Amino acid sequence: MASGIPLSDSDRAPWLAALHNLLSSTLKSNHHPVLACSALKETYRAQLLDGIDKVEIIYLKGSYELIWSRMSGRDGHYMRPEMLRSQFAVLEQPENVFSLDVSMSPQDMVGKIVETYFPA
Questions:
Q1: What residues have CB less than 8 Å from 27, skipping those under 6 apart?
Q2: Which domain holds residue 38?
Q3: pLDDT value, residue 79
């Protein structure tokens, strides 16, 4: 990705397997992991959660334009903004998950998560 070439499914496979193992081992040690990643396809999400129960997916949804503007304003990141189109091209939006609009402030997004999953 640093050289401007999108990852293929086979490129992502070891990364997804490592994240799956990390989630599994963290849960088995009675900890509660939070994983942020661009699991763009349903098959990726299925691989991440294979055999793992009681995990919630929170989909951070944003328009191409908003995400492009944010990416264009950052320096030194491995993923160049020009690659965003390829990410949107393969994105399979998750269904039946909790979605948050990324135009909200981070504080408001956290507030919605807490309100939804940890009601008073």
A1: 33, 52
A2: 9-117
A3: 64
Regions in the chain scoring below 70 on pLDDT? 1-6, 76-81
Q: What is the pLDDT of residue 84?
A: 80
Question: What pTM was computed for the model?
Answer: 0.83
CATH label of the domain that carries residue 90: 3.40.50.300
The whole-angstrom separation of Cα 40 and Cα 89 is 10
pLDDT tens by residue, 70-81: 878 777 666 666
48 neighbors 23 (Cβ within 8 angstroms):
yes
**2 lies in some domain:** no
Gap between the terminal Cα atoms of the chain = 43
In a domain, 39, yes or no: yes
| CB-neighbour burial class of residue 67 (10 A; exposed 0-12, middle 13-18, buried 19+) | middle
Q: How far is Cα 96 from Cα 58, in angstroms, rounded to an integer?
A: 10
